[in-house]
Give the backbone structure.
Amino acid sequence: MKSIISNINKFFESRVRLGIMSILMIHDKVDFNTLKDTLNLTDGNLASHLRALENKKYIEYSKEFAGRKTQTTYKTTVPGRHAFTEHINALEKLIKEQE
């Protein structure tokens, strides 16, 4: 029998990755600076967590021009949405079983 916590995704234990995914699950796409400001992170800290999520294929990015500047935006992938939803569902199930 599979335990409840086996569905909790260790990759989302990081509060930064949890925050990034939570924001991206609500919005279609979010730019780098909005993520940085919302989560109160440095460029380097945010970039390293975004890269980790990209490497897992949980998010993807695109570069667009906003005026003369490039703007990098991020969005979840289908596997990323699935993994995060499973993670949240496992947490909810764990909490409910403790009530």
